[in-house]
Amino acid sequence: MVTWADVLRWDPAPAQQVVGPLNAEFQELHGASDELRAAASVEGWSGPAAEAATGRVNQLVDAAEELAAELGAARRAFGDIGDAITGVVHAREEALGLAQAQCFTIGPDGAISDQGPPPGTPPDQAEAVAAERQRTAEELKDRVEQVLRQAEDIDSDACAVLDEMLSGTMVDSSGNDNTNTSLSSFGDAGFTLGGLSILAPPAEGATVAQNAAWWSTLSQNQQRRLIADRPELVGNRDGVTGWARNDANLALIGKERTTLQSARADLQGQIDKLTNGPGHQNTRNVLQAEITKFNDKLAGLDSVDRMMLDPRTKQPKPDHQLLSLDMSGDTAMAAVATGNIDTAKHVGVFTPGMNSNVQNGMAGYVNDMNEMRQYANQMLKDPSRQSVAMVTWLGYEPPTTRVEDLDELLTGNPANEGAEKLAKFQEGINASRLDDDQPHLTALGHSYGSTTTGIALTQSHGVDDAIFFGSPGISEGENPAQVAANLHVPEGHAYNLSAEGDAIANVIPYGDRYGPPLEHMQGMNQLSTEQHGPMIASQGHSEYAVGDGQMSTSEHNMAAIIAGQPELAVQKQ
């Protein structure tokens, strides 16, 4: 069993340094291939002595073939070991750095010890500091656990390969025709057998911190291999870096399209086999309804293609990231960022509301948020050293105004289910970056999306500022979002915008279906949506953030909060 004390001594250099000599040994052995083939069959020599000599040569050839396989396995194994250890060392140093920065220690057995909060912590902040230190302790525990899990996996794989080499069971060369022997092929076979596996992600239900810790233990080569071979394990995993999720999800688009097309064709085949009798009409209707869902999902994938790919080159847009792609529901679900969430100093996550879907409306939202990003970038005190990224998150299925969706609207299930996923997505953005590099994170919710956002903010989320606009309310059922303090954002960092003529924001809340009106919620800042200087007013329910090149007061206010410049926002009079 590998311990933390063992891992502290791990160094990739010895394993990496042995690969060169092993390659040289293999090349020298490979150079003897022609001589071995010639010695295995000597024309014109027969009799007992010839048979004995041939038998001995065949033994030597078989041994050389096995040695070639073992050398191939060894150079692959030690190369993989050295590479994998770089991931372990990287994750180990991250954990040690976090522990030192936050006044924790990690014992030889991996146990986390809290050395106490910083001296001089004000008494009124003691409770908040204690809660934050508990979170840090849990994060360190997750990091240590994943480092040890990776180290154990490397050790187990390496021992398995070395055991086969030492026991002489790497390959069986006895049945090979030595007159046509190829040491190169045996070396290639050994090279394949010597490869190490890649550590599987944490089990289903893992926290975003566990996902982030697992990903950091993988070397860059392992990460790239996993994205290429098993993108479905990476693309929707909260806590994994944005670049990796983007690459994995882009790789999944084609696979998802093929799967959907095949399933649709199967359903159409079932319909084609039905007779025209009345007894089959219900079956035909059910199958056709399923085909419609597949058509909607395929249209969603087409929309994602248009959002993510340059129309001229068909190559991925460098300033876009596809952070989730989920076909498990009735419609496509996705999250698209403009900007780089791995490096941006400020990140906004926008959640749309009712009737929103990937196939029709998401591209417009992405354009709107990209314009918001540009406004926010212009407000930064030092744009050369800071940046903004904006995410449009449709990782849930909002209700529609269709009659068949009325039950969902009344029960609130989409908001509650979406809120759980949204909270993890937001928390994952922070978890994917080190504590001293985490972005200023703003959550934005419009209409029913504000309800989803509000419920998400009562959970663990990592959000610093919250903006609600066109909101019917941010509570659902027993959800406790009755005052801004329940949103788990710093005091004074929750904002509401209600435009003139917006019936959703100005009428529905007074029915108390979604909790108290935000205009009167304790602790909620009220921002202007009216004309202010050259900035135009917002009217109705859908003009808060319209990407038309003309800045509204609403857009200015939201951009100011996103950029971390709340003093620039215009308060409601």
Automatic annotation (TrEMBL):
<feature type="coiled-coil region">
    <location>
        <begin position="50"/>
        <end position="77"/>
    </location>
</feature>
<protein>
    <recommendedName>
        <fullName>DUF1023 domain-containing protein</fullName>
    </recommendedName>
</protein>
<keyword id="KW-0175">Coiled coil</keyword>
<dbReference type="Pfam" id="PF06259">
    <property type="entry name" value="Abhydrolase_8"/>
</dbReference>
<dbReference type="InterPro" id="IPR036689">
    <property type="entry name" value="ESAT-6-like_sf"/>
</dbReference>
<feature type="coiled-coil region">
    <location>
        <begin position="130"/>
        <end position="157"/>
    </location>
</feature>
<feature type="domain" description="DUF1023">
    <location>
        <begin position="330"/>
        <end position="509"/>
    </location>
</feature>
<dbReference type="InterPro" id="IPR010427">
    <property type="entry name" value="DUF1023"/>
</dbReference>
